[in-house]
Design brief:
heterotrimer; A: two-stranded antiparallel ribbon; C: six-stranded antiparallel sheet
Chain lengths: ~575, ~200, ~675
């Protein structure tokens, strides 16, 4: 690594470290201060009594019903593409399975794309259904998290908040304004923002080049701030119109971290335990930093199989080098590593390079991030997942100090463990189960692109991404087939709502409990020891669950690479 | 039922705000402050759009600097149409894929042949690998410098003068901090055309 | 009670027999993890037989794996049986003490001789010196001295009498002196001991809340590993590797938390058993477990923190009175005072005066006993009338206020937490006796230990705040509640519980019963009233109120043992992966050979070593499960760090070593 690489990485960490506590504090204000005029106006308009608190069941029902309506609206608008304006290229609607897949993908904040944006969606589809679903998907996640956090802040309470209140507070005071601001900065850097669909250029060597454009910046900003990740273009953040400069690259991956990395601090403020916020932030940043280190080192290293072709892969003053396949020259390895690590860790799923062409050791990191899915994880739900892991880790460790385990004064008993374990099982069930189907059926294997263990990784990646509500892909695999489009659509819906319900139930159960005062015998949960414990627990459970898959995928591929074996 | 009604009204409100007010509002503001970028950073020559400063375009003639290989696919069938700005794509080839090893080897050989380089000359990685978008407007300085002799010869120019032109087109890391040094191929070739048509 | 620390050989033999009986799938189904092992054992057995009959596959390998799977089950069953039988043996030894007792049953005006085991609740019976108490009951008439050594191991006899807080008698104890009438407290089979026996025998053993939560976590982990192993053949087939079902079953059994699942019942039983060894009868496993969670311990001052009686520690003469004169007065006033205060005054006076017994006594001496009216005691002698009593009693006896110097001494003693007694002769104030509450030795350290566990202590006393504070300070108690009436205790418990704290207390009186019922952990004294024993969730056979401290430690130990062994069990999986996975795939992908970091000799030996280790670790950990992981009151963080290091890191490293050693042994035996 050169000094230039180190500078860029340090700047990124400084930015996250400076931003997270401030945004966390701001969000705490958003969720606890009196309503502002716009919000009151909105509640009158939608006819909701937002002062009425909901129990966890009603909260969950409202979440599901509203998301059902959002899903249906998105589906209909996409389905009607052919009859709607801003479609001068007369693009046909997506196939029914891809429409289903897309609506499911965007309402669940996954943004898995079984279509190529610029080739298959009209500007109306990009501007209205896609952006609408991006906003509501992310907003739902934050609302759910705030309800879950109330489980820890309340005692003897039967309610966890009002869904619409949580939803619109974040939308009005944080999400929409920040998207507007970031969008304009991205235009400044070069993202188009126009209702025009395409321009025909006349290249210097003759012929024509049709350059597709549209309202890119408005989609781009919500894509990253909402950890959505669905690109305007097929190449996503690698496309120069989505991500024109290294600075836009930096802005985009930092945008993914703005809200997600601030959630520990929101938690710390709401529970009045700022140290707890820092401890959980530390857990997130250790995994985030560790992942970055591996990707950066892997991608900087040469691909040994290309040595025979005499390709200069080393970094020098004349080129940034490394594993350049699928990467853009303006970003080089370091900006690409920062972006990739962030997008997977924050489950955005936007990419500024081809994941499929990355080295297996980097893929190990991307897999791990998706399986753990909480460092910091997607809008809200990622952090909720971290709390679930914390509950399980504290249960085990808490026993070892000789008390019924407690987290923030709440006793963890069989109901909590049952719900947390339920949420824990969803990931292996979906990822391992569906991958097993994918790699043993013809419908699954026929669209695999790369040979050898890498082909296995493509399928594993698709279902890991769908489960993590991540949305990034090893794009060699063709996923617009009915098998992949439908199975991943169902997976995304299950992976989103299945763990969320037990976690909301958990919040309901915790909110009802008494808060116990801490004593010398209570396990402190805001110390480095706790950070190490939680990290150890997460890595241990993750490793034990996925080691066989990891071994037959990236580990086997990496060892093959080192042995000079290609497939 | 009440929940459903509230959800429907919320949906309508949100579609209106996020689908229309937000993007169109941004469109208006963007065109006030950054009209060039908002319309796609297009480059015009004699009033004709020749391309976008941000989007790479294909160059195969010896008199131009060549961009990186592009894997943008042919939307109608198999194979690829390089630098198709209506369908961005990467090659998605795995580092352990034998096809990738072969493709890089033959690209390296072609690069050396085209530029008259000896087999011992290591080829810059970006010159033989496809970019993530297939529309990468940039190449590395190493790549540009190895093409200088060929272009100079095709245009009957002094290689040293051409090298000066190339060096004057190197964009360093943004504000000295972000990203890598690079040469924008379209801008370089446009400058080349105006320097020595 | 006979402390039965050694595991007897007949217990072991019984446990071995029981292990086979417990293979019954219906019984195993209550432990899902072990049930899966049984299904796996059956499958591998079938596969081994099939291989032998059809000459397909490795017969030896399949047989060895199935053998060790069955052994895994037997080892787990053995752990549970051993714990059960050990507890049972303890309880049995008590039950035999009253097998052949008889009772003199009161029926109307008749007295009938009946078998002790036929007594029903509310029956009344008589007891005379030399008789064995046939069952638990409460004295309704009379007073007796009773030898409880059969129950408590304590040889000194205890006094039990009707009407007070010490009216309980326990089956198996012996009456030494006194005639008493007793009413039976429980039907046969429902006495505390019966309940205790049932608890350790497992017949009525309900899983405690924490055990249930842990079981759920274990089932969750098991489901995850089932998914992992079930999908592995699909992944392998994509890599064109065929999976051997025997190896898959071996992998599954290695991964699911068999170690902790096998030992979990034993840990619970052993916890109750440990309480029992401390002579505490717990009514449920939950009670012991909750004891580990206690935040606050309420302790009565009298009898718990201090000896029940005050002792004279100092004699303070009045002006112009010599030390000898006062000592003599004290001696004469206390010579016939049978109270502990009087006896200790006598002892002190004798040592001050240097005279004892009959020496130097006046010719005539008539004792004046204490009466509630005069609130004084003393003696009328030829030398004069000696009296001692509290300051206000003496003042009203004298009819004049005390001299200032005496008054000063009196208030000085009161402020230091003591009780002053004023001594007079013929209406002349001679001085003051300083009576002091004596704090039991060793308490300060025990309370310090509690503090480090995170348990704070509150002393409840009827004394004035001044005295209470002095004693609390001396005993190292965190807080005190002075001038308490019995009903205040209840209010205090409720108040603390509302703050989210778990409260423990010990008590013996009938008026303690509501508080005992309200407290989260309540330890009744065996000597106490039936009401107290009914309201409490534990009974201490030694009737030692501070025993609750030991119960807290036993509760903590129980949870620690569960957590530690679970951590150990899960951490073990890492090494098992490194043994089995490379073995499955190295033939097809030699590059995976580097993952065989233990350098196990062959794939067959690798899988076999892992499964043998997995089986052997269960019996290896039985002693720890029965004894419990040691509890150290060093603060939660230090304790966690230590246990994580030992059971977490140790759990990762130990199997690497163990599997390698077994592999070396197998290679040596040419099994591969």
């Amino acid at each position: 690594m050169t000094a230039h690489d180190v500078t860029q990485i340090i700047l990124a960490f400084l930015a996250v470290g400076a931003m997270a506590p401030i945004v966390g504090r701001y969000l705490a204000w958003v969720f606890t201060s009196p309503r502002i005029a716009v919000e009151r106006w909105i509640f009158r308009a939608i006819g909701s009594d937002c002062d009425r608190e909901m129990g966890w069941r009603e909260y969950a029902t409202t979440l599901l019903v509203s998301n059902g309506v959002f899903f249906a609206a998105g589906y209909l608008l996409l389905w009607a593409q052919g009859h709607l304006p801003l479609n001068p290229r007369h693009l046909a609607p997506l196939t029914p399975e891809v429409t289903f897949n897309t609506a499911a993908s965007f309402v669940t904040n996954t943004n898995w794309q079984a279509y190529a944006g610029e080739a298959q969606l009209s500007n109306f589809s990009q501007m209205v259904p896609i952006v609408f679903l991006m906003f509501v998907g992310a907003n739902t996640g934050i609302a759910a998290l705030v309800a879950i956090l109330r489980g820890f802040t309340r005692a003897g309470a039967s309610t966890v908040g009002n869904f619409w209140d949580d939803f619109f507070r974040f939308f009005v005071r944080a999400f929409l304004p920040s998207c507007l601001l970031l969008g304009l900065v991205l235009v400044w850097q070069g993202c188009p923002q126009t209702l025009a669909t395409s321009v025909v250029a006349h290249p210097l060597e003759g012929g024509t080049q049709t350059i597709v454009m549209g309202p890119v910046a408005s989609l781009e900003s919500v894509k990253n701030l909402g950890t959505n990740g669905g690109g305007f273009f097929n190449a996503n953040g690698a496309h120069p119109y989505e991500n024109p400069t290294p600075f836009s690259n930096m802005l985009e991956f930092l945008a993914m971290m703005v809200f997600t990395s601030s959630l520990p601090f929101l938690f710390g403020r709401l529970t009045r335990r700022p140290r707890q916020g820092w401890a959980l932030f530390a857990v997130i940043m250790v995994l985030y930093g560790g992942g970055l280190a591996v990707i950066e080192k892997s991608e900087k290293a040469p691909n040994p199989l290309l040595a025979a072709a005499n390709v200069a892969q080393a970094s020098s003053s004349l080129q940034s080098g490394g594993n350049t396949e699928g990467k853009e020259v303006r970003f080089g390895i370091t900006q690409t590593s920062l972006f990739t690590n962030t997008t997977i860790a924050a489950t955005t799923g936007a990419v500024d390079a081809a994941i499929d062409s990355m080295l297996p050791s980097s893929l190990m990191v991307t897999f791990s991030h998706m399986w753990l899915n909480e460092e910091p994880g997607g809008k809200g739900v990622g952090f909720a997942g971290l709390l679930k892991e914390a509950i399980l880790a504290i249960f085990l460790a808490g026993l070892m100090v000789g008390r019924t385990p407690e987290f923030l004064g709440k006793k963890l008993e069989s109901r909590e463990i049952k719900l947390a374990a339920l949420a824990l099982i969803v990931t292996p069930l979906l990822v391992l189960g569906l991958t097993a189907v994918g790699v043993t059926t013809t419908v699954g294997t026929s669209t695999i692109d790369n040979p050898g263990p890498h082909g296995f990784e493509e399928v594993l990646y698709a279902f890991s991404s769908g489960n993590a509500n991540n949305g990034s892909a090893m794009a060699g695999l063709t996923v617009s087939t009915p098998f992949y489009a439908d199975s991943i659509a169902v997976e995304m819906l299950l992976a989103r709502y299945l763990p969320l319900l037990p976690l909301l139930a958990l919040a309901g159960s915790l909110a009802r409990k008494r808060t116990h005062p801490e004593t010398a015998g209570t396990l402190p949960t805001d110390t480095p020891l706790f950070v190490a414990l939680l990290l150890g627990f997460m890595l241990m459970v993750g490793l034990l669950t996925f080691f066989p898959a990891l071994m037959l995928g990236p580990i086997l591929e990496q060892l093959s690479l080192l042995h000079g074996v290609s497939f | 039922m009440k929940t459903l009604a509230v959800s429907l009204r919320a949906m309508l409100l949100l579609v209106l705000v996020t689908g229309f007010v937000y993007p169109i509002g941004m469109d208006v503001i963007a065109h006030i402050f950054f009209p060039h970028q908002a319309d796609g950073s297009l480059i015009r020559k004699n009033g004709v759009v020749v391309g976008s400063a941000l989007i790479g375009q294909p160059f195969t003639q010896p008199r131009y600097f060549h961009p990186r290989p592009s894997a943008t696919p042919d939307p109608t069938g198999s194979g690829s149409v390089p630098y198709d700005a209506a369908f961005s794509s990467a090659s998605n080839l795995a580092p352990t894929n034998g096809a990738q090893v072969k493709a890089v080897s033959s690209a390296a050989k072609a690069y050396r042949d085209e530029n008259g380089l000896p087999p011992t000359q290591a080829v810059p990685a970006d010159a033989v690998t496809a970019s993530g978008s297939g529309l990468d407007p940039d190449i590395s300085l190493a790549n540009a410098l190895l093409q200088v002799n060929r272009v100079a010869h095709a245009r009957s120019m002094e290689p040293s003068a051409l090298k000066r032109l190339v060096l004057s087109h190197v964009e360093g890391p943004q504000w000295g901090l972000f990203g890598e040094s690079r040469v924008n191929v379209l801008k370089l070739n446009l400058a080349l055309d105006s320097l020595k048509p | 009670m006979k402390k039965n620390d050694q595991i007897r050989s007949e217990t072991v033999i019984g446990a071995v027999r029981q292990s086979f009986v417990m293979l019954n799938p219906v019984k195993l189904a209550k432990n899902p993890v072990m049930f899966i092992v049984e299904v796996g054992s059956l499958l591998t057995t079938v596969l081994a037989v099939r291989a032998a009959v059809l000459h397909t596959g490795e017969v030896l390998f399949s047989s060895v794996i199935s053998l060790w799977l069955w052994l895994t089950l037997l080892f787990a069953n053995f752990a549970e049986s051993l714990a059960e039988l050990q507890g049972k043996a303890q309880a049995e030894s008590l039950r035999t003490t009253r097998a052949e007792t008889f009772a003199r049953l009161v029926v109307g005006t008749d007295v009938r001789r009946v078998s002790g085991s036929s007594l029903k609740k509310w029956d009344k019976f008589l007891l005379s010196p030399g008789e064995i108490v046939p069952t638990d009951g409460e004295i309704i008439a009379g007073v007796a001295s009773i030898d409880e050594s059969a129950i408590t191991g304590e040889s000194a006899p205890v006094i039990r009498e009707a009407g007070g807080d010490r009216s309980g008698v326990t089956g198996g104890t012996r009456v030494l002196a006194g005639e008493i009438t007793v009413v039976v407290a429980a039907n046969p089979g429902e006495t505390f001991l019966d309940r205790m026996i049932a608890l350790v025998e497992g017949a009525t053993r309900k899983k405690s809340p924490n055990e249930i939560a842990l079981s759920i976590l274990l089932i969750g982990l098991t489901l995850i590993f089932l998914l992992v192993v079930a999908t592995l053949p699909a992944f392998a087939s994509y890599a064109k590797v065929e999976s051997d079902p025997v190896v898959l079953i071996a992998l599954l059994v290695c991964l699911i938390p068999t170690t902790i699942a096998g030992l979990l019942p034993a840990i619970g039983i052993a916890g109750i058993d440990r309480a029992f060894r401390a002579n505490v009868v717990a009514k449920s496993g939950k009670a012991v477990e909750v004891a580990g969670d206690i935040d606050l311990l309420l302790l009565d001052k009298t009898g718990t923190i201090t000896f029940g009686n005050r002792q004279a520690v100092q004699l303070l003469p009045a002006q112009d009175v010599s030390r000898e004169e006062l000592a003599r007065a004290c001696r004469l006033a206390s010579l016939h005072d049978p109270t502990p205060e009087g006896k200790s005054t006598l002892t002190l006076a004798e040592s001050e005066e240097g005279l004892r017994g009959e020496a130097g006594l006046p010719e005539r001496l008539e004792p004046v006993p204490f009466t509630p009216e005069t609130r004084m005691s003393g003696a009328d002698t030829s030398d004069g009338a000696y009296r001692k009593g509290s300051e206000d009693a003496i003042e009203s006896y004298l009819g004049t206020p005390l001299p200032p110097i005496v008054r000063e001494a009196v208030s000085g003693i009161a402020q230091s937490g003591g009780t002053p007694l004023v001594v007079v002769r013929d209406r002349k104030v001679l001085g003051v006796i300083h009576l002091k509450d004596i704090v039991k030795p060793g308490l300060t350290e025990r309370f310090e230990r509690l503090r480090r566990m995170g348990v704070s202590t509150v002393m409840v006393t009827g004394d004035n705040p001044l005295t209470a504070q002095a004693i609390a300070r001396e005993a190292g108690i965190d807080d005190f509640f002075a001038k308490a009436r019995p009903e205040d205790k209840m209010a205090l418990i409720k108040k603390e519980q509302d703050k989210g704290r778990l409260v423990a207390m010990s008590g013996d009186g009938t008026n303690d019963a509501p508080s005992l019922a309200q407290a989260d952990v309540a330890l009744a004294m065996n000597s106490g009233t039936q009401a107290a024993k009914e309201a409490a969730n534990m009974v201490d056979l030694d009737s030692d109120p501070t025993k609750i401290i030991e119960v807290v430690e036993i509760g903590k130990q129980l949870l620690i043992t569960r957590g530690a062994l679970t951590t150990f069990s899960v951490a073990n999986d890492v090494a098992k992966y490194f043994a089995i996975l490379p073995a499955m795939f190295v033939a097809s992908f030699p590059q995976l050979g580097v993952l065989n970091i233990m350098k196990l000799s062959t794939p067959v030996s690798a899988v076999t070593s892992a499964i043998i280790f997995n089986a052997l670790i269960i019996p290896a950990l039985i002693p720890l499960a029965l004894k419990g992981v040691r509890y150290r009151p060093v603060g939660a963080a230090a304790l966690l760090r230590r246990n994580l290091l030992v059971y977490g890191l140790g759990g990762i490293l130990v199997p690497f070593l163990g599997i390698k050693l077994i592999d070396m042994a197998l290679t040596f035996l040419h099994f591969s």
